[in-house]
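Issue 218. Parser rejects a valid record. Input:
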Amino acid sequence: MSTTADGRRIAVRAGLRRGWLETKYSLTEVGDIFWMLVFPLGFTVTLLFMRGDTVPGTDLALGAMVLPSLIGMSIAFGGLAGPAMQITTDREDGTLLRAKATPDGMLGYLIGKIWFFGLTTLASMVLLAIPAATVIGDLRLDGRTALLLPIIFVVGMIATVPIGSALGSLFKSSAQSMLVMLASFLLIAVSGIFYPITALPTWLQWIGQAFPFYWLGLGTRSAMLPAGAEASEIGDSWRTAEMFGVLGVWAVVGLVVAPIVLRRMARRQTASAVQAARDKIMAKGF
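Output the parser choked on:
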């Protein structure tokens, strides 16, 4: 038992180190930096156009409600779509094959992805929040915000990255993994990110509540909006316990299912398959 525990601790440390190295490398890539900047910039411009508008039936600025929602959406999107798209690359370049050959390698791989996407998503959130918060009033930025927001962020990444990795392993190519991004956009539309979910038909509200996008948006709104803003939410409540409960279920399911799915996928990977994938990419001129 101790040997197994020691092996898992080593895998966790290796995963954290790998995630940090991937982050540093990502920050030197022009393409990665571009995508890290383009969404925060676009959202900031969108929030500027919302200045002067209020949430229907309240005096709360619409931009003040949308900014926390965008932060929650960024957590979910970074944790689901990011790993789903990158895992196909890791499969083609042999990363998963090497992880399979290492004791507890899949655990280390998963920890590394949680750490990597957590750091890069956090960078995007900061790039969005700092300029937007300076032009939007009605936000609550106090001790409760400082305590609750980091907890929601950590729980959100643990709840989404494993699921995103498992979903990505089901696709055979990077193009197919784009379906996760498309599905994410559809879920964002019914998750109360840009408009109160209570304005949607009841059946759409239930669909939105089944996925992390809604709950992470709700959690970040509860951390950053003033008292009384919950009047536009379902049940006139922030439902904090339910929020952590649903995200906790997603986290447990992801951490149990993802290593199993990744191991099964890695079993089908061989050195010859990796080389064939590389040859195919080279033949396309990439």
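Fixed in the parser; the record now loads. Residues 62-92 form the longest helix (31 residues).
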